[in-house]
Amino acid sequence: MNPVKVGICGLGTVGSGTFNVLARNRDSIRARVGADIVVAQVGARRDNPACDTGDVAVTRDIFEVVRNPEIDIVVELIGGTTVARELILEAIANGKHVVTANKALIAEYGNEIFAAAHDKGVSVAFEAAVAGGIPIIKALREGLAANQVEWLAGIINGTGNFILTEMREKGRDFGDVLAEAQALGYAEADPTFDVEGIDAAHKLVILASIAFGIPLQFDKVYTEGITRISTEDVNYAEELGYRIKHLGIARCDDEGIELRVHPTLIPEKRLIANVNGVMNAILVKADAVGPTLYYGPGAGSEPTASSVVADVVDVARTLTAEPKHRVPYLAFHPDTLSDHPVKPIEEIQTAYYLRMSALDKPGVLSQIAQILSNAGISIEALIQKQPAEDADHVPVILLTNVTREKALMAAVEQIQALDSIAEEVVRIRVESLAG
Fold first, then answer.
1. Any idea which residues carry the catalytic annotation?
2. What's this model's pTM, rounded to 2 decimal places?
3. CB atoms < 10 A from the CB of 435, how many?
4. How far apart are CA 276 and CA 268, in angstroms?
5. Which of 340, 311, 343 has its CA nearest to residue 327?
6. For residue 435, is pLDDT > 70?
């Protein structure tokens, strides 16, 4: 094969890592592909001291890369959804194959991008868009191709996992740990995407589309962050035998598909409950193989570059293949994607953790229990703490049985209306994640 010429757009953390990995592992990559992978041009607004581009042509106009007739594969690593979308669509229009790590772009505009790429007969690869260095997309799309995926659950945002880990292990407050995460570079100056679950929702919708053969539907993902989780909740969960993790969960059954991101209590003995710090993990339950767990670094320069370069290798291997013989973008051929409905959050069924501040007097617990009983909800576990000195309210913590969300919310509304309840009831969903 002739050398495969690559153009890298963006020379930030992941872009520099990609350039360095391609240079350092050039010989082994050539042996895998059967041809040299050559970075022919880089488009970047500024140089990066972490990356010596040597004699490679560098342009400040990233669109020069996608218009360069010598480039075979465009690697988009600029981030965002505006310029990146324009860049990728122009690359496709010019007959370039595309590799990207841009989860927001794929989640929100992937259907449009894949349709354009299909019409042009080019590849779009995006392994690095989900869970950094963990090859979860290849696992779902190819490794589990024999299976019907029943559900998946993932810790797919390292910032949130770092915060919850520090809160559990060191008893620290959310705000304190967030400030450290920002100082360490785990969280952005504006951490909204991480702590409010938007980043995880982008990743979840990609995983669910590949797992269940549905179009990308980011607007239908229920998203809840971790900003309301307190150290007390983390400690009470431990006392009950659970860990709190911020999960993306997708489940498919005859009624529809669940797409939800939220804090979740998981039994402490589950492997995924013991994934700590900035690490990511995805648990997949499929009919033939059963449960499988994929664990590793979810971000970082070279871990993410590992996935980017793996995609470059895959694309280079199939440059001469007929488009119909390549693995479909979302694992299923476009004309077979399902219109199975996505369930509204009110219709999902799970167990719940409830924490409330109740007046310390006889009859209050029986009132709460009666409201739950009338809604068909039973109490599986209960903790009532002693009141603090000079306090007239006590913390009450309940675990419920599995119930439908709308029934639980109606019951919580009635509980909050009681004169004996001092504050808003905190609720966190509970999942067994049993295989």
1. 203
2. 0.96
3. 13
4. 12
5. 311
6. no
